[in-house]
Structure formats: structure tokens, C-alpha cells
What does this fold into?
Amino acid sequence: MTTYAIGDLQGCQTQLNDLLQQIDTVAPQAKLVFVGDIVNRGPRSLATLRQVRALGARARIVLGNHDLNLLAVACGLRKPHASDTLDDIMAADDRDELISWLRHQPLAMEQDGHLFVHAGVLPQWTASQTVALSREVETVLQGPDWVAFLQKMYGNEPAIWDDGLQGDDRLRCIVNALTRIRFCQADGRMDFKAVEGLAHTPAGLMPWFKAPNRRSDDTTIVFGHWSTLGLMVLPNVIGLDTGCVWGGQLTAMNLQDRSTIQVQCPQHQKPGKN
Ligand SMILES: [Mn+2]
It folds into this structure.
């Protein structure tokens, strides 16, 4: 069975439609995995979320930082950012069902020998450990205390992993790695300032997937989140955020032969935000 991994949608539902039609032409019934940031910044967050959910068992997703932001806005913890485009979801009849569905999605998952995350993986984690740590977050997010958890989720510390981390610090570190990381130090200490591509790598930092002795390097990791990186294809690393909301493309990759399908997108947001 063919599987296509699909980069950040960010509410670009017109392009999602185009892309799905093209996939159906070459591989009808192909399985789909979305690498997160389904919503926000683009023009059609509600329609995008509904469409991905309606794909049912054919599609799986991992949550991105914008998807978590939607959950925080939906439960009243955060005010929408000026460039957020979540109002149509907030006003939708099926809002509660959509939010509940989103809240029950994973932050990391393995399928067909690939590990899927929105942003990245810390060098201390194996692929299976990454999924187990993601489960710790999912258990809380899907449980009765999910609003209290979201309230404590935001913040940049602790920026470095330690197996002994506990409670909110532990969950925050896991969420930040899986949904926000781009660059880190050699020891895996996360940086949250640099948002440019590899040509602008700050001194002392490296992309998370180049960290030395990364314990997940025996597994191909598929991720999104980093539009300034563009399409990144290495033997064991596939970055798929090609910046559709910024006027780039929406990219799908066939994970069997690594062929791509891309849809060009109009620019909905000016670069400079993430
Ligand atoms: Mn993101």
C-alpha cells in the first residue's frame, strides 16, 4: 500500500483539494500522513480541518504547534494572535467535535518504518522512545485535565532533555521538541530564536537532525514545521514544509519511491513569522 506524507497545510484547503486529486490520479486509496499544522495563518482553517478529519482511517496526522495553539484558543486560554485565522473554527457548529478529534491525535507516530513528528526529535531519544514520550503527552491531552495541561505547556524551559524530568517540565520539554524545535546545540539543548534555513545557521547551533550521536538515526524521520528549510531529503530525514502559506508549495511525498507531488500556493502571509 502506498503512503503519501504531506507537509504543513496551515488552512490552505484549496491546495489540499488539488493535491488529493493528483494523488488519487496516480495512487487511488493511498494512505496519507499529515505532519501537522493543519490549521492557521491560511484562509480556510475550518474547511481544512473538516476535510482532513473526513478522510477517516485513510489519513493519520501528528499535531503541530499551530494545532496545539488552536486547542488553547478554543478553551479560552489564549487570545488569538493578530495573524491567526481560527475564527471560522471558533464559530462552527461542529467546533466541539473538531476540537475533540484534534485533541485525540498523536504528536509522534511510527508507520511503514518511518517516524512522523511535526518539528523534530531530541538526540537522546530513540525512535521508539520518541513515540513513548509522545504517549505521555497524549494521555494528559486526552484526559480530564487537558485544559490545565495546556495552561502550563507554554514556555522555553527546560531546553535540554533529562530522563529524570518530571511533571509539567517533562511534558513541556517533550512538546517543545516534537512541535517547535529547529536548531539545537550539540548536546540537544533547544534553541527557539533562529527560524531561518541552514545557510543562516547561528554559531554553536545545528539543525536537530545533525546533532551528533542522535539515537534515532536508524529510522527515517518525516517532519514539517521548517518552511525556510524547504524540501529536505536525506537518507534518513525528510522535511516536507515547503511553505504553502508563505507562497511556496504544498508537498506530498510517496514514501515508497520518494517521488513528490507539489501544488503551487498563492502567498497568504508575508515571511517573518512562524
Ligand atoms: Mn509548525
Residues 37, 64-66, 118, 225 surround manganese (II) ion (CB under 6 Å). Residues 127-141 form the longest helix (15 residues). The longest strand covers residues 249-254.
